[in-house]
Every structure is written in structure tokens, then in C-alpha cells.
Design brief:
Length: about 240
């Protein structure tokens, strides 16, 4: 096995450990790490989403089993997210990686800042505005595909901020994320081909190995310091690519 393959295993392991403790950040951490290793933007996002097919499926089933899913919310959110994800993946795969990479890095910096802000500012309670669900889903899908992650930070924070029940939002967005990730992955496979995504196996292996440990850490680690650390890592590694 190549050195890069083992690096992908480590990336998948570390990203899933943090995601298991935070409920977010697998996508942005994996994509940021792959970009730092020189993987083209489209390939980095595609590899991350192929890997997330396994992690989001397990997470979605778990939330459904524990009755954390609002099926009416899923029915409004899933189609919008799938459309946005397909559009974002097609655009990313169709544009020169060197041209799009600065925009992807800038987006990841914004996500890092959002995670940092969320560490110190719990979402306020506001009136529920259901008409916002489809637009939030479309935007979340587009940006998740282009940036290789961000569905959780964008969609979950937006819907909780609108006044939806946090437990139901987290369960519903996690369940919906599988459908969005599947759409994004299929779009990438059709545009890039599997030969460009073979190294995703390393991320999958690392993520699967780490999954049980993430569930243990979530009970023991303080969330705020971990969110701050994750945001700093994302911002720093993304900013470096501008120089």
C-alpha cells in the first residue's frame, strides 16, 4: 500500500473521531486535509462524499431508530438538498481545480469561523419559518458539494436558529444527509469516474475504525474546546493555501 493510502486512513480516523464528538466537521476536516496534501478540489470533495455514504447511513439509521427524525421536515429538506448537491458537484467537477480551489479554501475558512462562533453562541430561539427549509436545503447542498462539507454546520445551525426543535433538527439533517451525499457521490462518479476516487477506501477504513471511539469521546470531552480546536485547524490549513 502507498504512503498516501495510509495517510488517508489517518485522515479518515481523525476526522471521524472529531465528528463523533461534535456531530459535525467530518467533511470539512477531510476535505481540508486532502487539499493540503495536494488532492484537486473536485477529487477531495468526491472522496469525502463517497466515504460519508457509510458514515451518514449509520448515523441516519441510528437517529431514526431513536425517533429523532421529523419526517415532514425530511420531506421538505431532502429534495432541496439533493438538487443543490447535484448542482454543486457538477459545477465543481466541470471547473478547473486550480481556479476553484481559492474559493473552496475561502468557503472552508467561513465554515471554520462559523464553528468557532457556534462554540460561544448557542442558537437563539425564534419563530419557526417553514418556508425557509427548502432554500436552506438547496444552499446547504450546493456548498456541501463545492466545499466537501458543511451540510451540518449550515443546515443544522440555520434550522435551529429558526426555532425548530434541536433534537429533531439534528436527527432529521443527519438522516437527510445520506440522500444528499448519495446524490453528490453519484454526480461525481458520473463526471469524474471511479478511477479518480479509488483512494476513498483509505478514508472509509479510517472512519469505520474510529466510529466506536467517537461515541465514547462524546460522553467525556468538553464540546466548546474541541469546537475551537477544530475551527482553528480548518481556518489555518485553508489560509495557508493562499500563500
Amino acid at each position: 500500500m502507498s504512503t498516501d493510502f495510509f495517510l488517508f486512513i489517518v485522515i479518515g480516523f481523525c476526522a471521524q473521531i472529531i465528528d463523533g464528538a461534535l456531530g459535525m466537521a467530518f467533511g470539512v476536516l477531510s476535505t481540508t486535509s486532502l487539499l493540503t496534501l495536494g488532492v484537486p478540489a473536485a477529487n477531495a470533495s468526491a472522496m469525502t462524499h463517497v466515504t460519508e455514504l457509510f458514515t451518514t447511513a449509520a448515523s441516519g439509521i441510528s437517529h431514526a431508530w431513536h425517533r429523532n427524525v421529523d419526517w415532514k421536515l425530511v420531506a421538505r429538506l431532502a429534495p432541496a438538498g439533493m438538487i443543490g448537491g447535484a448542482v454543486g458537484a457538477f459545477l465543481l467537477a466541470s471547473v478547473d481545480g486550480k481556479l476553484i480551489e481559492p474559493f473552496v479554501s475561502a468557503y472552508l475558512i467561513v465554515i471554520g469561523l462559523l464553528i468557532f462562533w457556534k462554540a460561544f453562541h448557542p442558537a437563539p430561539k425564534r419563530d419557526v419559518r417553514d418556508w425557509m427549509v427548502p432554500p436552506v436545503g438547496v444552499c446547504g447542498g450546493v456548498l456541501d458539494a463545492i466545499g466537501g462539507g458543511g451540510w451540518g454546520p449550515i443546515v443544522t445551525s440555520s434550522l435551529v436558529g429558526r426555532g425548530h426543535d434541536p433534537k429533531r433538527v439534528i436527527g432529521s439533517t443527519n438522516f437527510t444527509e445520506f440522500a444528499v451525499t448519495l446524490t453528490i457521490s453519484i454526480t461525481f462518479l458520473l463526471t469524474l469516474g471511479w478511477s479518480e476516487l479509488g483512494s476513498a477506501a483509505g478514508l472509509i477504513i479510517g472512519g469505520v475504525i474510529a466510529a466506536p471511539f467517537g461515541a465514547i469521546l462524546v460522553k467525556r470531552l468538553r464540546v466548546k474546546p474541541l469546537m475551537v480546536a477544530v475551527s482553528i485547524i480548518i481556518i489555518a490549513t485553508s489560509a495557508i493555501r493562499f500563500f
